[in-house]
Structure formats: structure tokens, C-alpha cells
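Two proteins, back to back. First:
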Amino acid sequence: MSDISRAGTFRLGHRDVKRMGYGAMQLAGPGVYGPPKDRNEAIAVLREAIASGVDHIDTSDFYGPYVTNEIIRDALYPYPEDLVIVTKLGARRTADKAWLPAMSATELREGIEGNLERLRLEQVEVANLRIMGSVHGPTEGSIGQKVEAIASLQQQGLIRHVGLSNVTAAQLREAQAITPIVCVQNHYNLVHREDDALIDILAEQGIAYVPFFPLGGFSPLQSQELNAIAAEIGATPMQVALAWLLRRSANILLIPGTSTRAHLRENLAAAQLPLPKELLERLNAIAAAAVEPV
């Protein structure tokens, strides 16, 4: 079993969590819609994650919709005392599998109440406000009213800590003027590095950064150099990509997702994968090469 504690911990809200967590999105069916092919395997994945030391699970009621939260509840309730469940608000699903904004005060309240009911919780530890801009990146614009709405839910005790997802540095500052922000969840990985400066800003403030699509998401990372480095050290390219993220900054928390125990073990093993300085330099160069003109 992998020792994920070797990757260290970082503060999330009022608790320190291991930096290798688990993202539940892939527990839903194709297109993050409907039930999984094998619900028993999905339950087994969650239970093995906890047995392996994972104490930070990322989910949302709009995964499925409702599917992942119901599986988490059935697999893990009553929850371990040290488990931090993070959810997201701000979107809804339609019958044609679309993702639509749901960020009015009424929709956010309905969203948190649904999460609480399906997860069987009285309070969500961390709720990320997911700003529905472009598909994989934020767009500038005021988010003040939306943050005020989620802060109201926090004041009512339904949410303990507030985070943000898919936001810019300016939107982060706007939100921080309204309520403390404990984490930012944006698109970031070895080749998609637009948030380099934001990660460093958050690190200075002691705030966690949680990259979504750490392995490329629906289009997995592809790089001959990444493949070559992985072969040299006897790892998979995805393990190397995760290990690089852990080395990128101490405030990065990882939530790689999977629907199989075999893949879960592979992901968790990245927590103890050594990356010498020479390999880190080669990996850092991949991002630069990815944006060079052809």
C-alpha cells in the first residue's frame, strides 16, 4: 500500500489534510451523467481510498447528478472523524447532459441543501463556488453577488468554509473582501500553467490550490518527453505528472479521480515518487515547449 503521507499535508479550512486526496467525479457514468457501470467497484474504490489514508474527498451534487454523493454516503457513512468532504455549488445538469449555471441565491441554497441531504451531513466542511465561465478557464467579471449568497449560507451554518473554482486573481480578491477563502480549484497541470502566478500568491497567503484536470481531464496529457521520463524511472506518465504537481508548490492538494481500485493505487503511488532536480527541469521545459509556435 502506498504511503501517501510522504507527500506531506497542507491546511484546508481549519484542518491539515494529506496532499493526495481523491476526486469523485469519475464515479458517475459516462459524461459524468447517470450511474456507474459497476456501483460495487465504485464503493470499493472509496473504501480503499480511505483505508490508504485519503482524508480529503472532492465531490458535487451535480455529478450524476446526485450519483457520486449517494455513492459516497453508502460507502463511507458514518464518516471517519478526520475526513474532509468538499463539494461544489454553481451548476446544474439537464437531461441532455449539459452543464448550466445555477448561481442565484435560491439555486445555491437548493444546491447546498441537496448536498447535505444526500451526503447525510448537517454542515458541509468546504463548499466551492464554481463560476461557470468558459469550459476550462475563468472569465473576468464581478462575482460579488454570488459570493455574498454563499457567504449567507455560511453564516447560517450550512457551510463551514468557502472556496472558489474557475476564478481569476481579481475575482479571488473580490471574494476575499466578502468572506475568507480557504481554497481555489482551477484548471492546472503540467502543460496547462496559466495559474502559475496565482498559485504563488495563494501559497504566500497559506491558501490551498486544488488543480482540476491534473492529468488533462477528458483529453489526457500527451508528451513524448513525459513518456520518456516515466520510462526512465519505472513509472507511468500520469504518476510523473501527479508527482510534478506535488513538487510544484507545497500548497497544492491533489484530487485525481478514478473508478477502479487498480487505477487508484497507481495514482496514490505518485505521492512517494522521487523526482530529482534534473528530471524536474526537463518536466518544467515541457510546458514551455507546448506553447512554442510551430
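And the second protein:
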Amino acid sequence: MKRLAFSQLAIGVAIAAGASLAIAQPQFQSASPTAGGTTSQQANQTADKTMYQAVDYVNKNKPGPQVIVIPGEIKSSNATFLQKFTANNIADFGELELSNANFKVLERSNLGPVLREFEIAYNLGDPQAARKYLGMGKMKTTKYVVKFDILKTEQVASATQSFDGGTLGQMAGLLGAFSGSRGGAMAGAVGGTAVGSVHSGEATSVWVIGMRYKIINAETTEQLAQGYTEEKMEVGATSSGALGMNQGQKGGAGLDTMVQRLVQKSVWEIDSKYK
């Protein structure tokens, strides 16, 4: 009986372990030849800081009303931003985060041309036509229409600093040459070469990106609320070297990460105030 009980316990433990393995997220290894090396560790430490971080929304346990996210406006004239982003990209982030905050989100892809007609009517300032479209099909029970606009993307500051040992190396060589001895001249030449090979540099640029959100009453098409938030995006690079050995690092949060963080801050406020 004891052996049977022990066997049953062992089987139970094995099943539990297997179940935990089955539901665990898949893990993938890097195929890079530098994986695990110094440069890999440095690059991954920087990359880890830009990974997606879920927000613990204050009222996420409270079901929110049905909402539709429509593409907002991008009022920035920054060419890099305009090449990388469209209003639809930002609306996709909005749908994701509002869903995470427990709002019932009607995805744009499931609404067909009706949503597009609503957008046109709303943007043309025709509330009657806009209301007509919101009364159709799945859109009937919508309470809020939400949009996220990019109002600012500008580089506000930059700074650089560097050190080049070339001048000091030349001075060391000259001092050795004027020492009056062959040994001093040779030492000066070697020291000059060593000092002259030393170099280091650092550069940082800071951008400010600003986002506005608007909440529109789906029944009346009147604006109920709006808010604005900004985030700094810092990008930097360092380099250094001596005696033929060089190293460098560059990194920082990208535009994708910054836009998603702005959406998260906006949704946090919507969840806190307007659920």
C-alpha cells in the first residue's frame, strides 16, 4: 500500500511538472555568434530597458464601456517620424492598451467601411451623419470614441564630448627627442605613440514627443474630455580606444517604444478618470 501511494504521488508530481512546462511561455536562444560575450551583454542590457512593460491600470478589474479607437492626427513635421509612423499604427497601440485596461474595444478591422464613413463625417464636422453611422450594427452600443494625436516630435537638446590623445602624444615624443639621450628619445617615441592612440567620445541627443488624447461621446459626437502628455527620448553613443583596441556602444528607446509609452500614459489617465 505504501509503495502504491508513493507511486501515485510520484505520478502526480510528474503530471504537475509536465503541466507547468506545457503552459510556460516558449524561450528562444540567440543565434548570434557573439551571444554571451561582452558586447552581447552590453547590448542586451540596453535592449532590456526598451522591452514592453505592461501597465497596472488602476481600474483594470472594473469592466469599461464599449469604445472605438479611430486614427488620430500626426501634426509633427519631422520627416523621420512621418516615414516610420501612420495614424493607424498609433490607433493599434490604443486598441491594445484599452483592451488591457478592460475596456470593451471594437477593433477597426471588424467594422468595415462603416467606421471609415464615420471618421469622414466626424472630421468634416457633420455630427448628424456621424451619429447615423454610430447607430449601425455593432457600433450601436458604443459609448466612447477615442483618438490619439501626435502634436510634437522635436529634438530639443544634444551634447558631445571627446578626447584625442594625438596632441599629447606629439608633445611626449618631442620631450623625449630633446632629452639629449638615445634612451630618452626612444622612450619618448614609444610613450608618444601610446598616448597618441588614446581617444574617447560621447554624444547624446534628447527628443520630446507629445501626445494628446480625445474622448468623444458616441451618441452626441461631442468631445467629453482631452488630455496631453509628453515623454523624453534619449539616444546616445560612446566610443573609446587605445593601442589599436576600440569599443563603442549606442542605444536608447526608439520611436515605437516612445509612442507606446505615451499611449500607455494616456490610457492610464482615461482608465483612472473616465471609466
